[in-house]
Amino acid sequence: MSMASTTRDESSDNDSTCSSITLYYAMKVVDREALAVRKKLQRAEMEKQILAMMDHPFLPTLYAAFDASHYSCFVMDFCPGGDLLSARQRQPGKRFTISSTKFYAAETLVALEYLHMKGIVYRDLKPENVLIREDGHIMLSDFDLCLKCDVVPKLLRSKTSSESSVKTRRSSAPSCVAAPMHSCFSASSKRKKVVTTAIIRENMDVYEDQSQHKGHDYCTSGLGEHDTEIAAEPINARSKSFVGTHEYLAPEVISGNGHGSAVDWWTFGVFLYEMLYGRTPFKGENNEKTLMNILKQPLAFPRVSSVSSSSKEFEEMVKVQDLISKLLVKNPKKRIGCCMGSVEIKRHEFFKGVNWALIRSVRPPEVPAELNKIRSRVSLQKLSKKDKDQPYQITHHFDYF
């Protein structure tokens, strides 16, 4: 990654003073030759395509993309607050408070919701990939492991609704059609797959399949007798690729039997756990033991001595543990969010009181000051007319780190 700055002069012909505004950008530089050797060049292509699709405050804006020699360069937003892993390690006990966890989790959930509505399964959620903007709000990063498929919003009705609603749900179920060796964008897409294994479509009725499993019905639970809601979840997306970070891998990814959008809700549960307790729930002595723990070990919560059993914080801890327990269900078809996605998760008691429409108006736990320090070190001089007429010299405006 590199940081770029550009300066805009604001002055008039009648005023000799010059007010300069310095804007900072981040540039991700990808070595295509190195990726080609590892047979992962398609991942850079996928990331570029995903970035170009985005238009959301909690996701990066792709300002420019260009190739230089064997490098691909993506110019995006600069986040002076670093990532949530570094932020967590600065906290007392290297863990966030429940209120801070709720803030970052809520914004991350909204970002995942947007991705799923666009038919994108993220597959790489972890604190290192959640960056903090200058205003303290979050921005997801790194989209090279994404899985993309078509998704159509569906109308959810209560169980007491007429049976015609079932036909509506079936007809509006998202589809992910792909020929072998191609990623599942659409029938006309010519892009190669993200990874080496083929993406397939399951020719089955997801809603009928859900009803065959005992346990909580996440497709309609929480809806009143006359309630309706719209959900857009790429539930038919399927891949057999082994991708992700070991401690965050979902059981269905490890087993290799195929996975879909439910992997993002598993990783969201691991994300919540790490934010609260300072570690992931199934970490073993090595990667192999970590994977075995994910498949076999039951979920357990450590005791937090700073939380009193009679405090309001304890009540919040009980709520978030309940949410984590429902997210970290090893069977993806019984996992909260498996069918309705973020709609079901937003309704959980842990997020009670969150104003989702005005979430960007909430003051973040911390507002970074790093950018102001950077600005104070920059000495800007007013350009002469001769300098202004010179071609733009990119090398004078890039600092690498």
From TrEMBL:
InterPro entries hit by this protein: Kinase-like_dom_sf, Prot_kinase_dom, Ser/Thr_kinase_AS
Signal sequence, start to end: none
Coiled-coil annotated residue ranges, if any: none
Principal subcellular localization: cytoplasm
Keywords: ATP-binding, Cytoplasm, Kinase, Nucleotide-binding, Serine/threonine-protein kinase, Transferase
Classification via SUPFAM superfamilies: Protein kinase-like (PK-like)
Stated family: Belongs to the protein kinase superfamily. AGC Ser/Thr protein kinase family.
Name of the featured protein: non-specific serine/threonine protein kinase
Organism of provenance: Glycine max (Soybean)
